[in-house]
Amino acid sequence: MGKASKVMELFLHPEEIVPLGRMYLAAKKAKRLPSSPTWAFCYDMLNRVSRSFAIVIQQLPEELRNAVCVFYLVLRGLDTVEDDMALNTKKKLRMLETFCDDIYKRDFIVKDCGEGNYKRLMMEFNNVTEAFLSLGKVHQDVIYDITKRMGLGMKEFIPKEVETVEDYNLYCHYVAGLVGIGLSKLFAACKLESAKFATKMDALSNDMGLFLQKTNIIRDYLEDIEELPAPRMFWPKEIWGLYAEELDEFKDPENREEAVMCLNHMITNALGHATKSLDYMNELEHKWVFRFCAIPQVMAIATLATCYNNGKVFEGVVKIRRGKTAKIVTELNSYEDLVSAFYNYAGDIAAAVEPAVDPNAKDTLQACKDVQDKCVKMVKGANKSGALSSSNQSSFTSKLLLFMLSLGYASYAFSLGGVRESLGVSADAGDSTIDFIQKIIAVLCVIGLSIILFLQD
């Protein structure tokens, strides 16, 4: 996106300017690395492979922060092995099975695996294992257990296609549901959440992971299908087979109608995990653990709302507007914020449903209703009045303020009402060319903000 487009985005969404500034400062803070070379590598790599995640993780208490950082990098390493389609299959299967044991080796590295930052991560993985070995045994045990189970699960799917929805759920469990289970156990191990998170939250933790993973799989369709030397195909044939003979047919613009139907079907399937995610987050008590969990979940449902009925998913990766991301990352601080976001994004999806042309319309509307009903029920149960209020009022206030400022600037540009004189500037002072340019800018500002203020939602 060019500079002009970015400026236009800010012009259209002025309420996102402050969150963008706050996110910039948070990202800058996240880049301040520890003095230890080992931990400096880990946090630098975390910033490189997951910027938004790095910002949120930096806000966790130190014990949990370090454990989660290592946990993430270990699993990112395992994922890099799975994702490398150029890696010899026999070698890949062996590595997926033994990776959990290799993290106990201080000199463990992997050559010629991955690309870019991921290749560097693998080449210098000894830093990650060094950090892993410095953690407490309870943290090591959790990371080892999840890495082992995930590696074996990935190994199971190397020769196996994702045929059924059951396969799809199982694969997502292996690569993401287990992450949720491991994080819950780390929360309990650090005594930031109750002991039940170590023993009784596996099902809800799994739903948290599946909601995120299915969102990523939907969003990354084109990137995965065009992977070289061989495509990665995670959409279940039980779903896409209803709309095409081959999964890659959706890339063809001639098949866009069927592609979007399939996309909406996939999104409806993902929404089935949203209510369980809300149940999980309702149990969280620690503020920063809550933010750590809630921000990715809101990003997920926002992504689904952006992707729904959107044929651009088959042309490239569809992303949430950066300003919207900044608002989520910087302003999601309470349970009310979480519930409002889920309620509103579910409403956005429901509003985009086209019953006349979408065979899944009824199921999609029901899934959205289930999310909104859950939000209402949980707000009433918690006696949190006003949690479902929209953010439209704050947005309107921001736009109104900018509109008033634009009127003030126009008054100056056109020498109205003695504005220039009140500022000590002669009405006829200045370069005529500059005055003309200022008048043009002022007119554009007033017209543009008038449209935004009075014609937009």
In short:
With 457 residues, the chain is mainly α.
Description:
Its EC number is 2.5.1.21. The chain crosses the membrane at residues 400-416, 436-455. It comes from Chloropicon primus. One of its GO terms (biological process) is sterol biosynthetic process. Belongs to the phytoene/squalene synthase family. This protein has 457 residues and is mainly alpha-helical. It has a domain at 392-455. It contains 23 helices and no strands. It has helices at 3-12, 17-30, 37-49, 51-57, 62-83, 89-102, 116-123, 126-134, 137-157, 165-189, 196-199, 202-219, 221-225, 237-240, 256-271, 274-281, 287-307, 322-331, 335-352, 361-382, 392-413, 419-422, 432-455. Helix 12 (202-219) packs across helix 16 and helix 17 runs parallel beside helix 19.
Describe the structure using short key phrases.
457 residues; mainly alpha; 70% helix
**Beta-strand content bin:** under 5%
Q: What is the quaternary state of this protein?
A: single chain
**End-to-end Cα distance:** 25 Å
The SSE order reads: HHHHHHHHHHHHHHHHHHHHHHH
Secondary-structure class: mainly alpha
* Approximate shape: globular
Radius of gyration: 25 Å
Reported for the largest beta sheet, the result is: none
Q: How large is the count of helical segments? A: 23
Number of strands: 0
Q: Roughly what percent helix?
A: 55-70%
Instruction: Give the overall pLDDT as a whole number.
Output: 88
Q: What low-confidence regions span 5 or more consecutive residues with pLDDT below 50?
A: 384-394
GO molecular function: D-glucose transmembrane transporter activity; metal ion binding; squalene synthase [NAD(P)H] activity
Keywords: Magnesium, Membrane, Metal-binding, Transferase, Transmembrane, Transmembrane helix
Transmembrane segments: 400-416, 436-455
GO cellular component, one term: endoplasmic reticulum membrane
